[in-house]
Amino acid sequence: MSRVEATTEALSVAVAAQVPVLLWGAPGTGKTSALRALADAAGLPCEVVIASIREPSDFAGLPVVIDGEVSFAPPSWARRLAAEGRGLLFLDELSTAPPAVQAALLRVVLERVVGDLILPDDVVVVAAANPPEQAADGWDLSAPLANRFCHLDWVVDARSFAEGMAAGFPAPATVSLPQGWQRHLVSTRALVSAFALVRPALVVAPPTDATEAGRGWPSPRTWEMTARLLAACRACAASEEALSSLVRGAIGDGAGAEFLAWSSELDLPDPEAVLADPSSFVLPERGDRAYAALSSVAAAVLANTTIDRWMAGWKVLGTAGERAPDIAAVAARLLARCRPAGAAAPPEIKAFLPLLRDAGMLDR
Q1: Which candidate, 179, 97, 129, 171, places its Cα nearest to that of 20?
Q2: What is the per-residue pLDDT across 78-115, written as a single tens digit (0 to 9) for each?
């Protein structure tokens, strides 16, 4: 798979998962054309807004007085997207937007709020930017705005360009996530949670260099973004290249490389196989692997809760609690919250009674 194909796939996954994404690339490399083509291929309305020629009021809303009260009127492009109920908001030339405009974009990117108008959930924010050294009167992206995006590098592959010039550039492949894909979020959040215990310094690590702070870096927001992107990649069986680009784009190259290497070495048991035969479960020796394995079992029960699966989960925790009670206690909290109607208290729960009593879960 070429870098162009991997980046296009990663972009499509981010759009399908409704994660704001920012394409970085030199001027004239087809970022805008690719976004328009992706919108056309997906059948999505696309509103292109050149951020560098806009005023803060174009995003924060123009103040108007109606019946003695001040309202912030949204621009026409926002009203069109709201009327469609879905689509792409493409913010072009983001790195040439002055700091005041970048500040006005904070709520637009994170909450999809334009003036007093809230855009529908199915409106996805996509942006494009040139590196500051290649942009006309460019600025480094502010850290708060950068932290709201997954950053992807847009590259030009000579072979892909040559083939496109000769035979026409193909429409980018789109990604459709299956219904219920969010069920993967429980397990991917558990994976991120386990890594946070191993590398607590990477939970929040804003760079001190202005240029690096204008790209992806670790924060609770971008870790949540990472879990969402991982869930989407699992749901659509995305390539390893696309997954790597998305993770690195969300939390930065350094943290992303460390997280990817760590997660690839876990070799966790299949939680469905464990629930089918709880007696087969062997608690990993390493604490991070044990935490991730037990969390994934609890996550599998949460994703599809039946009495049999819930009881099987407690059998696993009962075995693990004998060797690692502190680690098993975290998963026990998760199982206690999803007790299905009609399920009797399993005998394994006795080991966790003090914990559940303190958490106020014994009346469930």
Answers
A1: 129
A2: 999 999 999 999 999 998 888 999 999 999 999 999 99
